[in-house]
Protein backbone atom coordinates (compact mmCIF):
# COMPACT_ATOMS: atom_id res chain seq x y z
CA UNK A 1 0.00 0.00 0.00
CA UNK A 2 2.27 2.70 -1.25
CA UNK A 3 1.48 6.14 -2.57
CA UNK A 4 3.09 6.51 -5.95
CA UNK A 5 5.35 9.45 -6.65
CA UNK A 6 6.18 12.32 -4.37
CA UNK A 7 3.97 15.10 -3.08
CA UNK A 8 3.60 17.67 -5.83
CA UNK A 9 2.48 21.16 -4.74
CA UNK A 10 -1.00 20.47 -6.09
CA UNK A 11 -1.33 17.14 -4.35
CA UNK A 12 -0.07 18.75 -1.14
CA UNK A 13 -2.71 21.44 -1.49
CA UNK A 14 -5.31 18.71 -1.95
CA UNK A 15 -4.02 16.84 1.07
CA UNK A 16 -4.15 20.03 3.13
CA UNK A 17 -7.76 20.71 2.17
CA UNK A 18 -8.66 17.12 3.00
CA UNK A 19 -7.24 17.58 6.48
CA UNK A 20 -9.82 20.24 7.25
CA UNK A 21 -12.80 19.00 9.28
CA UNK A 22 -15.43 17.49 7.00
CA UNK A 23 -18.82 19.09 6.64
CA UNK A 24 -21.53 16.59 7.54
CA UNK A 25 -23.18 15.23 4.46
CA UNK A 26 -26.86 14.27 4.61
CA UNK A 27 -27.22 12.32 1.41
CA UNK A 28 -27.82 8.79 2.57
CA UNK A 29 -30.07 6.65 0.45
CA UNK A 30 -31.40 4.97 3.56
CA UNK A 31 -32.17 8.20 5.29
CA UNK A 32 -33.09 10.44 2.41
CA UNK A 33 -35.08 8.17 0.14
CA UNK A 34 -35.47 9.18 -3.49
CA UNK A 35 -36.74 12.67 -2.85
CA UNK A 36 -36.06 15.49 -0.47
CA UNK A 37 -33.53 18.27 -0.57
CA UNK A 38 -29.91 17.37 -1.07
CA UNK A 39 -30.75 14.48 -3.40
CA UNK A 40 -29.03 16.27 -6.24
CA UNK A 41 -25.69 15.70 -4.59
CA UNK A 42 -26.21 12.03 -4.05
CA UNK A 43 -23.06 10.05 -4.77
CA UNK A 44 -22.87 8.39 -8.19
CA UNK A 45 -21.02 5.25 -9.12
CA UNK A 46 -20.30 3.47 -12.40
CA UNK A 47 -18.87 -0.05 -12.25
CA UNK A 48 -17.27 -1.18 -15.52
CA UNK A 49 -16.07 -4.67 -16.36
CA UNK A 50 -13.97 -5.51 -19.39
CA UNK A 51 -14.38 -9.28 -19.43
CA UNK A 52 -11.12 -11.20 -19.05
CA UNK A 53 -8.88 -8.14 -18.62
CA UNK A 54 -5.93 -9.68 -16.83
CA UNK A 55 -4.20 -7.43 -14.28
CA UNK A 56 -0.93 -7.17 -16.20
CA UNK A 57 -2.34 -6.19 -19.61
CA UNK A 58 -1.89 -2.55 -18.61
CA UNK A 59 1.88 -3.11 -18.42
CA UNK A 60 2.12 -4.81 -21.78
CA UNK A 61 1.25 -2.06 -24.25
CA UNK A 62 0.64 1.66 -23.87
CA UNK A 63 -2.67 2.09 -22.06
CA UNK A 64 -2.77 5.82 -21.35
CA UNK A 65 -6.44 5.86 -20.41
CA UNK A 66 -6.04 3.20 -17.74
CA UNK A 67 -2.98 4.99 -16.47
CA UNK A 68 -4.64 8.35 -16.21
CA UNK A 69 -7.44 6.81 -14.13
CA UNK A 70 -4.81 5.27 -11.87
CA UNK A 71 -2.90 8.54 -11.58
CA UNK A 72 -6.05 10.49 -10.80
CA UNK A 73 -7.36 7.80 -8.49
CA UNK A 74 -6.37 4.42 -7.13
CA UNK A 75 -5.13 1.13 -8.45
CA UNK A 76 -4.87 -2.27 -6.79
CA UNK A 77 -2.00 -4.42 -7.94
CA UNK A 78 -3.41 -7.77 -6.88
CA UNK A 79 -7.12 -8.54 -6.76
CA UNK A 80 -8.02 -12.03 -5.62
CA UNK A 81 -11.30 -12.90 -7.29
CA UNK A 82 -13.62 -15.79 -6.42
CA UNK A 83 -13.49 -19.46 -7.28
CA UNK A 84 -14.30 -20.63 -9.89
CA UNK A 85 -12.70 -17.88 -11.96
CA UNK A 86 -15.49 -17.87 -14.54
CA UNK A 87 -17.61 -15.03 -15.88
CA UNK A 88 -21.02 -15.48 -14.29
CA UNK A 89 -19.83 -16.44 -10.79
CA UNK A 90 -17.39 -13.53 -10.61
CA UNK A 91 -19.69 -10.88 -12.00
CA UNK A 92 -22.27 -11.88 -9.40
CA UNK A 93 -19.63 -11.80 -6.64
CA UNK A 94 -18.72 -8.23 -7.63
CA UNK A 95 -22.28 -6.99 -7.09
CA UNK A 96 -23.10 -9.11 -4.01
CA UNK A 97 -19.80 -9.41 -2.13
CA UNK A 98 -20.47 -13.13 -1.80
CA UNK A 99 -18.55 -16.26 -2.69
CA UNK A 100 -20.18 -18.38 -5.38
CA UNK A 101 -21.28 -21.03 -2.87
CA UNK A 102 -23.41 -18.39 -1.17
CA UNK A 103 -24.72 -16.36 -4.13
CA UNK A 104 -25.63 -19.54 -5.99
CA UNK A 105 -24.24 -18.77 -9.45
CA UNK A 106 -21.57 -21.41 -8.98
CA UNK A 107 -20.61 -21.76 -12.67
CA UNK A 108 -21.48 -20.72 -16.19
CA UNK A 109 -23.00 -24.16 -16.65
CA UNK A 110 -24.72 -25.78 -13.69
CA UNK A 111 -27.33 -28.24 -12.56
CA UNK A 112 -29.64 -27.88 -9.59
CA UNK A 113 -30.72 -31.31 -8.34
CA UNK A 114 -33.49 -29.83 -6.18
CA UNK A 115 -35.03 -28.03 -9.14
CA UNK A 116 -33.95 -30.74 -11.60
CA UNK A 117 -33.03 -27.85 -13.89
CA UNK A 118 -29.90 -26.91 -15.81
CA UNK A 119 -28.44 -23.42 -16.15
CA UNK A 120 -26.42 -22.64 -19.21
CA UNK A 121 -25.15 -19.47 -20.85
CA UNK A 122 -26.22 -21.02 -24.10
CA UNK A 123 -29.92 -21.17 -23.23
CA UNK A 124 -32.66 -18.91 -21.91
CA UNK A 125 -32.34 -20.66 -18.55
CA UNK A 126 -30.28 -17.68 -17.39
CA UNK A 127 -33.51 -15.65 -17.37
CA UNK A 128 -35.09 -17.89 -14.73
CA UNK A 129 -35.14 -15.74 -11.58
CA UNK A 130 -34.68 -18.57 -9.10
CA UNK A 131 -31.08 -19.16 -10.16
CA UNK A 132 -30.19 -15.65 -9.02
CA UNK A 133 -32.30 -15.32 -5.92
CA UNK A 134 -29.96 -16.90 -3.40
CA UNK A 135 -28.49 -13.38 -3.29
CA UNK A 136 -29.55 -9.79 -3.88
CA UNK A 137 -27.45 -7.73 -6.30
CA UNK A 138 -26.53 -4.17 -5.39
CA UNK A 139 -28.85 -2.63 -7.98
CA UNK A 140 -31.87 -4.23 -6.30
CA UNK A 141 -30.73 -3.13 -2.84
CA UNK A 142 -30.28 0.44 -4.02
CA UNK A 143 -33.73 0.52 -5.53
CA UNK A 144 -35.26 -0.89 -2.37
CA UNK A 145 -33.52 1.94 -0.48
CA UNK A 146 -35.17 4.51 -2.75
CA UNK A 147 -32.36 4.95 -5.29
CA UNK A 148 -32.14 4.19 -8.99
CA UNK A 149 -29.87 1.97 -11.02
CA UNK A 150 -28.92 1.33 -14.62
CA UNK A 151 -27.35 -1.67 -16.33
CA UNK A 152 -25.84 -2.33 -19.73
CA UNK A 153 -25.36 -6.06 -20.35
CA UNK A 154 -23.93 -7.02 -16.95
CA UNK A 155 -24.59 -10.73 -16.34
CA UNK A 156 -27.89 -11.06 -14.49
CA UNK A 157 -28.89 -7.44 -14.99
CA UNK A 158 -31.66 -8.26 -17.45
CA UNK A 159 -33.17 -10.86 -15.14
CA UNK A 160 -35.93 -10.08 -12.68
CA UNK A 161 -34.39 -10.73 -9.27
CA UNK A 162 -36.51 -10.58 -6.11
CA UNK A 163 -39.17 -8.86 -8.16
CA UNK A 164 -37.03 -6.11 -9.64
CA UNK A 165 -35.12 -5.28 -12.79
CA UNK A 166 -32.64 -2.39 -12.73
CA UNK A 167 -34.53 0.93 -13.08
CA UNK A 168 -32.97 1.23 -16.54
CA UNK A 169 -31.33 -1.63 -18.43
CA UNK A 170 -30.46 -3.00 -21.83
CA UNK A 171 -31.47 -6.58 -22.57
CA UNK A 172 -28.45 -8.64 -23.47
CA UNK A 173 -27.42 -8.19 -27.09
CA UNK A 174 -23.79 -8.73 -28.00
CA UNK A 175 -24.22 -6.72 -31.21
CA UNK A 176 -24.78 -3.49 -29.33
CA UNK A 177 -21.53 -1.53 -29.51
CA UNK A 178 -19.57 -0.34 -26.52
CA UNK A 179 -20.22 3.23 -27.62
CA UNK A 180 -23.99 2.70 -27.61
CA UNK A 181 -23.84 1.12 -24.17
CA UNK A 182 -21.88 4.13 -22.91
CA UNK A 183 -24.26 6.63 -24.48
CA UNK A 184 -27.22 4.98 -22.79
CA UNK A 185 -25.50 5.03 -19.42
CA UNK A 186 -24.53 8.69 -19.80
CA UNK A 187 -28.17 9.43 -20.56
CA UNK A 188 -29.32 7.64 -17.42
CA UNK A 189 -26.85 9.53 -15.22
CA UNK A 190 -27.79 12.85 -16.86
CA UNK A 191 -31.56 12.45 -16.56
CA UNK A 192 -33.58 14.92 -14.48
CA UNK A 193 -32.96 14.57 -10.78
CA UNK A 194 -35.82 12.23 -9.93
CA UNK A 195 -35.03 9.88 -12.81
CA UNK A 196 -31.24 9.92 -12.78
CA UNK A 197 -29.55 6.70 -11.77
CA UNK A 198 -27.25 6.57 -8.76
CA UNK A 199 -25.46 3.38 -9.69
CA UNK A 200 -24.78 1.78 -13.05
CA UNK A 201 -23.01 -1.33 -14.28
CA UNK A 202 -21.42 -1.63 -17.71
CA UNK A 203 -20.12 -4.79 -19.31
CA UNK A 204 -18.00 -5.40 -22.42
CA UNK A 205 -17.16 -8.83 -23.90
CA UNK A 206 -13.52 -8.09 -24.69
CA UNK A 207 -10.66 -8.87 -24.20
CA UNK A 208 -12.04 -12.22 -23.02
CA UNK A 209 -13.22 -13.32 -26.42
CA UNK A 210 -9.92 -12.63 -28.15
CA UNK A 211 -8.04 -14.10 -25.21
CA UNK A 212 -9.83 -17.43 -25.68
CA UNK A 213 -9.38 -17.37 -29.41
CA UNK A 214 -5.77 -16.22 -29.70
CA UNK A 215 -4.33 -17.17 -26.32
CA UNK A 216 -2.97 -14.38 -24.09
CA UNK A 217 0.59 -14.96 -25.27
CA UNK A 218 -0.28 -14.08 -28.85
CA UNK A 219 1.17 -10.78 -30.01
CA UNK A 220 -2.19 -10.15 -31.68
CA UNK A 221 -3.54 -9.51 -28.18
CA UNK A 222 -1.59 -6.26 -28.06
CA UNK A 223 -3.98 -4.56 -30.45
CA UNK A 224 -6.98 -5.93 -28.57
CA UNK A 225 -5.69 -4.35 -25.34
CA UNK A 226 -5.00 -1.05 -27.08
CA UNK A 227 -8.56 -1.10 -28.39
CA UNK A 228 -9.93 -1.63 -24.87
CA UNK A 229 -7.87 1.31 -23.65
CA UNK A 230 -9.36 3.45 -26.40
CA UNK A 231 -12.83 2.35 -25.37
CA UNK A 232 -12.06 3.45 -21.84
CA UNK A 233 -10.90 6.77 -23.31
CA UNK A 234 -14.20 7.07 -25.14
CA UNK A 235 -16.07 6.56 -21.86
CA UNK A 236 -14.07 9.15 -19.93
CA UNK A 237 -14.46 11.62 -22.76
CA UNK A 238 -18.23 11.16 -22.83
CA UNK A 239 -18.35 11.61 -19.05
CA UNK A 240 -16.41 14.87 -19.43
CA UNK A 241 -18.63 16.12 -22.25
CA UNK A 242 -21.71 15.44 -20.10
CA UNK A 243 -20.19 17.23 -17.09
CA UNK A 244 -20.18 13.96 -15.15
CA UNK A 245 -16.48 13.23 -14.90
CA UNK A 246 -16.02 14.92 -11.53
CA UNK A 247 -19.32 13.67 -10.14
CA UNK A 248 -19.39 10.01 -11.07
CA UNK A 249 -17.09 7.61 -9.27
CA UNK A 250 -15.72 5.19 -11.85
CA UNK A 251 -14.45 1.70 -11.06
CA UNK A 252 -12.79 -0.21 -13.89
CA UNK A 253 -12.20 -3.88 -13.27
CA UNK A 254 -12.85 -7.34 -14.65
CA UNK A 255 -14.11 -10.76 -13.66
CA UNK A 256 -10.91 -12.78 -14.20
CA UNK A 257 -7.68 -13.07 -16.14
CA UNK A 258 -6.61 -15.55 -18.82
CA UNK A 259 -3.88 -18.15 -19.30
CA UNK A 260 -2.29 -19.81 -22.31
CA UNK A 261 -3.27 -23.39 -23.15
CA UNK A 262 -1.28 -25.96 -25.09
CA UNK A 263 -2.51 -28.84 -27.24
CA UNK A 264 0.08 -31.09 -25.59
CA UNK A 265 -1.54 -30.46 -22.21
CA UNK A 266 -4.82 -32.30 -22.61
CA UNK A 267 -6.30 -34.75 -20.13
CA UNK A 268 -8.72 -37.21 -21.74
CA UNK A 269 -11.25 -38.50 -19.23
CA UNK A 270 -12.35 -41.34 -21.50
CA UNK A 271 -8.99 -42.96 -20.81
CA UNK A 272 -9.93 -43.35 -17.17
CA UNK A 273 -13.69 -43.62 -16.77
CA UNK A 274 -16.63 -44.55 -18.98
CA UNK A 275 -18.98 -41.75 -19.99
CA UNK A 276 -21.85 -44.06 -19.08
CA UNK A 277 -21.11 -43.61 -15.40
CA UNK A 278 -21.58 -39.84 -15.07
CA UNK A 279 -22.97 -36.60 -16.45
CA UNK A 280 -20.53 -33.89 -17.53
CA UNK A 281 -22.10 -30.72 -16.06
CA UNK A 282 -19.46 -28.02 -16.43
CA UNK A 283 -16.38 -27.88 -18.60
CA UNK A 284 -12.64 -27.33 -18.25
CA UNK A 285 -10.69 -26.22 -16.34
CA UNK A 286 -12.94 -26.98 -13.34
CA UNK A 287 -15.08 -29.85 -14.54
CA UNK A 288 -18.24 -30.61 -12.56
CA UNK A 289 -19.10 -34.30 -12.58
CA UNK A 290 -22.44 -35.78 -11.53
CA UNK A 291 -21.97 -39.53 -11.10
CA UNK A 292 -24.92 -41.76 -11.83
CA UNK A 293 -26.94 -43.02 -8.89
CA UNK A 294 -24.72 -45.27 -6.77
CA UNK A 295 -21.61 -44.66 -8.88
CA UNK A 296 -19.95 -41.91 -6.85
CA UNK A 297 -17.17 -44.03 -5.37
CA UNK A 298 -16.53 -45.92 -8.58
CA UNK A 299 -16.13 -42.72 -10.61
CA UNK A 300 -14.05 -41.08 -7.88
CA UNK A 301 -11.71 -44.06 -7.53
CA UNK A 302 -11.13 -44.21 -11.26
CA UNK A 303 -10.22 -40.54 -11.45
CA UNK A 304 -8.53 -39.85 -8.12
CA UNK A 305 -4.98 -40.73 -9.13
CA UNK A 306 -5.53 -40.84 -12.85
CA UNK A 307 -3.45 -37.88 -13.95
CA UNK A 308 -0.90 -35.74 -12.08
CA UNK A 309 -2.11 -32.61 -13.87
CA UNK A 310 -5.64 -32.93 -12.53
CA UNK A 311 -6.84 -32.59 -8.96
CA UNK A 312 -9.91 -34.62 -8.09
CA UNK A 313 -12.06 -33.54 -5.17
CA UNK A 314 -15.14 -35.01 -3.66
CA UNK A 315 -17.41 -32.11 -2.84
CA UNK A 316 -16.80 -32.48 0.91
CA UNK A 317 -13.04 -32.28 0.32
CA UNK A 318 -12.85 -29.16 -1.83
CA UNK A 319 -10.18 -27.02 -0.13
CA UNK A 320 -11.73 -24.58 2.30
CA UNK A 321 -9.83 -21.61 0.86
CA UNK A 322 -11.99 -21.78 -2.29
CA UNK A 323 -15.25 -21.25 -0.34
CA UNK A 324 -16.75 -23.56 -2.90
CA UNK A 325 -18.62 -26.35 -1.23
CA UNK A 326 -21.86 -25.42 0.49
CA UNK A 327 -24.31 -25.32 -2.36
CA UNK A 328 -26.50 -27.99 -3.88
CA UNK A 329 -25.42 -26.75 -7.32
CA UNK A 330 -21.82 -27.78 -6.65
CA UNK A 331 -21.52 -31.31 -8.01
CA UNK A 332 -20.35 -34.36 -6.02
CA UNK A 333 -17.01 -34.50 -7.87
CA UNK A 334 -14.95 -31.54 -9.06
CA UNK A 335 -11.91 -31.95 -11.34
CA UNK A 336 -9.45 -29.09 -11.43
CA UNK A 337 -6.86 -28.90 -14.18
CA UNK A 338 -3.42 -27.50 -13.43
CA UNK A 339 -2.76 -24.14 -15.01
CA UNK A 340 -2.37 -24.46 -18.78
CA UNK A 341 -4.04 -27.88 -18.90
CA UNK A 342 -7.38 -28.72 -20.48
CA UNK A 343 -9.70 -31.55 -19.44
CA UNK A 344 -11.74 -33.10 -22.26
CA UNK A 345 -13.52 -36.39 -22.72
CA UNK A 346 -11.43 -37.16 -25.77
CA UNK A 347 -9.31 -35.16 -28.17
CA UNK A 348 -12.05 -34.88 -30.73
CA UNK A 349 -13.70 -31.57 -30.39
CA UNK A 350 -13.20 -27.94 -29.66
CA UNK A 351 -10.07 -26.52 -28.10
CA UNK A 352 -9.27 -22.97 -27.01
CA UNK A 353 -5.84 -21.36 -26.85
CA UNK A 354 -6.72 -19.31 -23.78
CA UNK A 355 -8.89 -20.04 -20.77
CA UNK A 356 -9.69 -19.11 -17.17
CA UNK A 357 -11.59 -20.76 -14.36
CA UNK A 358 -8.50 -22.11 -12.56
CA UNK A 359 -7.47 -21.57 -8.92
CA UNK A 360 -8.22 -17.97 -7.96
CA UNK A 361 -4.87 -17.55 -6.21
CA UNK A 362 -3.03 -17.92 -9.54
CA UNK A 363 -1.79 -14.53 -10.70
CA UNK A 364 -2.91 -15.26 -14.27
CA UNK A 365 -6.52 -15.57 -13.11
CA UNK A 366 -6.67 -12.15 -11.52
CA UNK A 367 -8.25 -8.99 -12.94
CA UNK A 368 -7.22 -5.37 -13.32
CA UNK A 369 -8.53 -2.78 -10.86
CA UNK A 370 -8.51 1.01 -11.06
CA UNK A 371 -10.91 3.67 -9.80
CA UNK A 372 -11.25 7.42 -9.61
CA UNK A 373 -13.78 10.05 -8.61
CA UNK A 374 -14.74 12.19 -5.63
CA UNK A 375 -14.88 9.24 -3.23
CA UNK A 376 -11.42 7.93 -4.09
CA UNK A 377 -7.95 8.92 -3.05
CA UNK A 378 -5.63 10.19 -5.72
CA UNK A 379 -2.45 8.67 -7.03
CA UNK A 380 -2.65 5.77 -4.60
CA UNK A 381 -1.51 2.19 -5.14
CA UNK A 382 -2.72 -0.63 -2.92
CA UNK A 383 -1.02 -4.01 -3.07
CA UNK A 384 -3.87 -6.43 -2.42
CA UNK A 385 -7.61 -6.75 -2.09
CA UNK A 386 -10.24 -9.45 -2.53
CA UNK A 387 -12.95 -8.85 -5.08
CA UNK A 388 -15.63 -9.53 -2.43
CA UNK A 389 -14.41 -6.41 -0.61
CA UNK A 390 -15.63 -4.29 -3.49
CA UNK A 391 -19.28 -4.69 -2.50
CA UNK A 392 -19.03 -3.08 0.96
CA UNK A 393 -16.84 -0.39 -0.61
CA UNK A 394 -19.50 0.41 -3.21
CA UNK A 395 -22.20 0.44 -0.52
CA UNK A 396 -20.11 2.91 1.44
CA UNK A 397 -19.68 5.18 -1.57
CA UNK A 398 -23.40 5.03 -2.33
CA UNK A 399 -24.44 5.36 1.32
CA UNK A 400 -26.53 2.24 1.17
CA UNK A 401 -26.60 -0.37 3.92
CA UNK A 402 -24.79 -3.51 2.74
CA UNK A 403 -26.48 -6.88 3.06
CA UNK A 404 -24.52 -9.63 4.83
CA UNK A 405 -21.51 -10.42 2.65
CA UNK A 406 -18.05 -11.97 2.60
CA UNK A 407 -16.16 -8.74 2.12
CA UNK A 408 -14.90 -6.20 4.58
CA UNK A 409 -14.93 -2.45 4.24
CA UNK A 410 -12.00 -2.08 6.59
CA UNK A 411 -9.80 -4.03 4.15
CA UNK A 412 -10.33 -1.41 1.45
CA UNK A 413 -11.15 1.74 3.41
CA UNK A 414 -7.77 3.19 2.48
CA UNK A 415 -8.90 3.49 -1.14
CA UNK A 416 -11.37 6.17 -0.11
CA UNK A 417 -10.57 9.82 0.18
CA UNK A 418 -12.03 10.15 3.66
CA UNK A 419 -12.66 8.13 6.78
CA UNK A 420 -16.28 7.11 7.33
CA UNK A 421 -18.19 8.85 10.08
CA UNK A 422 -19.28 5.49 11.45
CA UNK A 423 -18.52 1.89 10.68
CA UNK A 424 -20.89 -0.14 12.87
CA UNK A 425 -22.38 -2.68 10.47
CA UNK A 426 -25.92 -2.30 11.80
CA UNK A 427 -25.91 1.45 11.28
CA UNK A 428 -26.49 2.85 7.81
CA UNK A 429 -23.12 4.21 6.74
CA UNK A 430 -22.84 7.89 6.08
CA UNK A 431 -21.47 9.46 2.97
CA UNK A 432 -17.72 9.28 2.85
CA UNK A 433 -16.75 12.10 0.51
CA UNK A 434 -15.99 15.56 1.82
CA UNK A 435 -17.53 18.31 -0.20
CA UNK A 436 -14.07 19.80 -0.81
CA UNK A 437 -13.08 16.76 -2.77
CA UNK A 438 -14.86 17.68 -6.02
CA UNK A 439 -13.25 21.12 -5.96
CA UNK A 440 -9.81 19.71 -5.41
CA UNK A 441 -10.65 17.00 -7.91
CA UNK A 442 -11.61 19.39 -10.69
CA UNK A 443 -8.53 21.48 -10.09
CA UNK A 444 -6.27 18.46 -10.19
CA UNK A 445 -8.04 16.95 -13.14
CA UNK A 446 -7.29 19.98 -15.31
CA UNK A 447 -3.64 19.46 -14.55
CA UNK A 448 -3.97 15.72 -15.08
CA UNK A 449 -5.70 16.16 -18.41
CA UNK A 450 -2.90 18.44 -19.61
CA UNK A 451 -0.39 15.85 -18.46
CA UNK A 452 -2.38 13.16 -20.18
CA UNK A 453 -2.16 14.89 -23.54
CA UNK A 454 1.57 15.22 -23.24
CA UNK A 455 1.82 11.50 -22.54
CA UNK A 456 -0.70 10.59 -25.17
CA UNK A 457 1.00 12.26 -28.11
CA UNK A 458 4.14 10.32 -27.28
CA UNK A 459 2.43 6.96 -27.27
CA UNK A 460 2.60 4.77 -30.31
CA UNK A 461 -0.85 3.82 -31.48
CA UNK A 462 -0.92 0.24 -32.64
CA UNK A 463 -2.99 -0.95 -35.52
CA UNK A 464 -6.26 -2.49 -34.52
CA UNK A 465 -7.14 -6.03 -35.32
CA UNK A 466 -9.62 -6.51 -38.09
CA UNK A 467 -12.78 -6.38 -36.06
CA UNK A 468 -13.57 -9.66 -34.39
CA UNK A 469 -17.17 -10.61 -34.33
CA UNK A 470 -18.63 -10.04 -30.90
CA UNK A 471 -20.80 -12.70 -29.45
CA UNK A 472 -21.66 -13.43 -25.87
CA UNK A 473 -18.42 -14.37 -24.21
CA UNK A 474 -18.15 -18.09 -23.81
CA UNK A 475 -21.73 -18.50 -24.97
CA UNK A 476 -20.39 -19.30 -28.37
CA UNK A 477 -17.32 -20.94 -26.97
CA UNK A 478 -15.33 -22.77 -27.96
CA UNK A 479 -14.28 -20.27 -30.54
CA UNK A 480 -11.67 -22.36 -32.18
CA UNK A 481 -13.09 -25.49 -33.70
CA UNK A 482 -10.13 -27.71 -34.18
CA UNK A 483 -9.95 -31.43 -34.67
CA UNK A 484 -7.21 -32.57 -32.41
CA UNK A 485 -6.69 -36.03 -33.83
CA UNK A 486 -2.95 -35.81 -34.07
C1 LIG B 1 -35.58 -34.33 -14.47
O1 LIG B 1 -36.02 -33.73 -15.67
C2 LIG B 1 -35.88 -34.54 -16.80
C3 LIG B 1 -36.34 -33.74 -18.01
O2 LIG B 1 -35.64 -32.53 -18.06
C4 LIG B 1 -36.71 -35.79 -16.64
O3 LIG B 1 -36.52 -36.65 -17.75
C5 LIG B 1 -36.32 -36.51 -15.36
O4 LIG B 1 -37.17 -37.62 -15.15
C6 LIG B 1 -36.38 -35.58 -14.18
N1 LIG B 1 -35.84 -36.25 -13.02
C7 LIG B 1 -36.46 -36.26 -11.87
C8 LIG B 1 -35.77 -36.98 -10.76
O5 LIG B 1 -37.55 -35.74 -11.70
C1 LIG C 1 -29.18 -6.34 -31.31
O1 LIG C 1 -28.53 -5.14 -31.65
C2 LIG C 1 -28.38 -4.96 -33.05
C3 LIG C 1 -27.49 -3.74 -33.24
O2 LIG C 1 -27.99 -2.65 -32.54
C4 LIG C 1 -29.74 -4.83 -33.69
O3 LIG C 1 -29.61 -4.66 -35.08
C5 LIG C 1 -30.55 -6.08 -33.39
O4 LIG C 1 -31.86 -5.94 -33.88
C6 LIG C 1 -30.58 -6.35 -31.90
N1 LIG C 1 -31.20 -7.65 -31.66
C7 LIG C 1 -32.22 -7.81 -30.87
C8 LIG C 1 -32.74 -9.19 -30.70
O5 LIG C 1 -32.75 -6.87 -30.30
C1 LIG D 1 -14.67 -38.78 -29.15
O1 LIG D 1 -15.96 -38.42 -28.72
C2 LIG D 1 -16.91 -38.22 -29.76
C3 LIG D 1 -18.21 -37.79 -29.12
O2 LIG D 1 -18.04 -36.62 -28.42
C4 LIG D 1 -17.08 -39.46 -30.58
O3 LIG D 1 -17.96 -39.22 -31.64
C5 LIG D 1 -15.73 -39.91 -31.12
O4 LIG D 1 -15.86 -41.13 -31.76
C6 LIG D 1 -14.72 -40.04 -30.00
N1 LIG D 1 -13.43 -40.30 -30.55
C7 LIG D 1 -12.65 -41.29 -30.14
C8 LIG D 1 -11.33 -41.41 -30.82
O5 LIG D 1 -13.01 -42.06 -29.27
C1 LIG E 1 -20.31 -15.39 3.45
O1 LIG E 1 -21.34 -14.51 3.86
C2 LIG E 1 -22.59 -15.13 4.06
C3 LIG E 1 -23.58 -14.04 4.39
O2 LIG E 1 -23.19 -13.40 5.54
C4 LIG E 1 -22.47 -16.18 5.15
O3 LIG E 1 -23.69 -16.84 5.28
C5 LIG E 1 -21.37 -17.16 4.78
O4 LIG E 1 -21.17 -18.07 5.82
C6 LIG E 1 -20.07 -16.43 4.52
N1 LIG E 1 -19.06 -17.36 4.07
C7 LIG E 1 -17.89 -17.47 4.68
C8 LIG E 1 -16.94 -18.47 4.11
O5 LIG E 1 -17.60 -16.81 5.64
ZN1 LIG F 1 -15.37 -13.54 -18.19
UniProtKB/TrEMBL annotation:
<keyword id="KW-0472">Membrane</keyword>
<keyword id="KW-0732">Signal</keyword>
<protein>
    <submittedName>
        <fullName>Putative ectonucleotide pyrophosphatase/phosphodiesterase family member 5</fullName>
    </submittedName>
</protein>
<dbReference type="InterPro" id="IPR002591">
    <property type="entry name" value="Phosphodiest/P_Trfase"/>
</dbReference>
<keyword id="KW-0812">Transmembrane</keyword>
<feature type="signal peptide">
    <location>
        <begin position="1"/>
        <end position="26"/>
    </location>
</feature>
<dbReference type="InterPro" id="IPR017850">
    <property type="entry name" value="Alkaline_phosphatase_core_sf"/>
</dbReference>
<dbReference type="Pfam" id="PF01663">
    <property type="entry name" value="Phosphodiest"/>
</dbReference>
<keyword id="KW-1133">Transmembrane helix</keyword>
<feature type="transmembrane region" description="Helical">
    <location>
        <begin position="436"/>
        <end position="457"/>
    </location>
</feature>
